[in-house]
């Protein structure tokens, strides 16, 4: 053997010896000796104690599934048991666990060959019973915020770009738990995550509408979760499914989510996808909502909605969470019910500055009038309790005392149109349809218009409620046009031949945070005109007006009496309504009404005085009175006649009558002995309302 060959042989033997020694060293080395070093290094980097408390092991094993010669290359397998990461020092004693996070065991294997081209390839990481205990104090300090140690680096130096890449194939765990105590949000939650065992296809839960198109490649549901606790003081419970951990890293692939959650009286069900989940890119979900009142969504979402009866909706929610104008949520083509009324539409919520804004269009094909009652607190006490309202309507009061939630009006802006195509109500109130355009801007709520179709005519109102003022300041203008008397009383046969109409105007202002307080201090005027109508006891019975039934019976008995015209001019000062003119011109007599109606006390004090025409027989010998409350009015006959007082009213010389615009709308009878012409000649000034008074 030549000298060169001997050198080569010994070199090869030496190389094998080194490899053998290395293998023996790796196989026999106690890796636990490195734990103190690893713990110290990681603790220094994270700024809080980190520890591998159990065994740290490394063993080598071939991977036959690699195939070919690669199957003979051994891979290192790493495992570490009982890993903990402590809380910051200020959280000591404030959490259930002394640690921020813990891990019973972690296992992974490393592909050695990719290291040659600077790639760290880890096909699989398995976590055993991970847990986290999260805490945020009322002052904003949170355990998940790490204060990393500052390093001495040149701030002007360019950021170093590592040439190494990390390739993780799969992350799995058997069961994990998270607890959250957020004192800032008044929230305490317990979350348990568990593998499903068998993946659930996305389309199986999402349906064809969501699972088609670009969502066809959405991965399966892999993990299930359960949630319980409190959110913003409300009891919270929920369950659902999500995709695998690895999909969180792929910004291009939709991440599947599914949840059924209840918070207080509100229930939500979602199924769909989240794009770029680590950065909360976008949402595409089918969203079902249900609850006792839409107002209960405010503490959960920050969206200001009115009080309503029980509701449910079903629609598609799309969200662009990184829109330049602010996160944008579009609840499109939703259908649902509010009380016994249907509801459809599109809503867009933009989380802009300085205030979020809600906009959209809503419609109801069939709207039940009673379902609008909660908007002003006019529903029953039982219904108030069902929607979670603590205020109760006093048994002896008619005007709603429930206060508007003006504190929420400045939380967001709104621009919403609502159309009620058909309104369901009894014949006593023949309202056919509804349209309103609602605008909310920095606490100022306007309804311009709020329009009802009534008895073949229209009731137009323009409402301005300034919730930014304390108390609320209001201005209301009303216009009643062309109410057909025969449609107002469709069940009264004699009225069906009438061509009479009702027209009127009103202007009111006031301060207060409920309908009752607004009217209790209201100021303004109201003017009404009626022509060519009929009145009788049976008409009052149909209208359900017991007091009116009594009055008409005393005036006319059972006879039907034609109304040539009627006019009312009522001034309202500090909640006290006083008729300046309130007169009926009938074929038998002129009837005047005098007295007051007090909206603050809901007390009535009215006198009804008839004046017979000519030699016609008129049975009444004394005027009538109407007293009592709005809830329980009482009528009777005056003991002392007040004919002189009534005659003075008939003169109408002091009347300030309704708007001149009404003149063109009324065609009075041409009978020589009626007073309609005189009444109409006095109608020259529109109603006025002063600016809302400021309460001290």
What features would you describe in this structure?
- The structure is a single chain.
- This protein has 696 residues and is mostly beta strands.
- Among the domains are: 22-139 and 164-184, no CATH class; 500-509 and 519-681, no CATH class.
- It is built from 12 helices and 34 strands.
- It has a 30-stranded mixed sheet that branches.
- A hairpin with a 2-residue loop joins strand 23 and strand 24 (444-454).
- Helix 9 packs antiparallel against helix 10.
- The longest helix is centred in the N-terminal third of the chain and has 26 residues, at 3-28.
- It is elongated and about 150 Å long.
- Residues 615-621 and 642-675 have low confidence and may be disordered.
So how many helices?
12
Q: What is the terminal separation in angstroms?
A: 117 Å
Report mean pLDDT, rounded to a whole number: 81
Largest sheet: 30 strands, mixed
Total beta-strand segments: 34
Strand content: 35-45%
Sequence stretches where pLDDT stays below 50 over 5 or more residues: 615-621, 642-675
Rg computed from alpha carbons, rounded to a whole number of angstroms:
39 Å
> In terms of structural class, how would the helical and strand content be classed?
mainly beta
How much helix, percentage-wise, in residues?
10-25%
The dominant shape is elongated
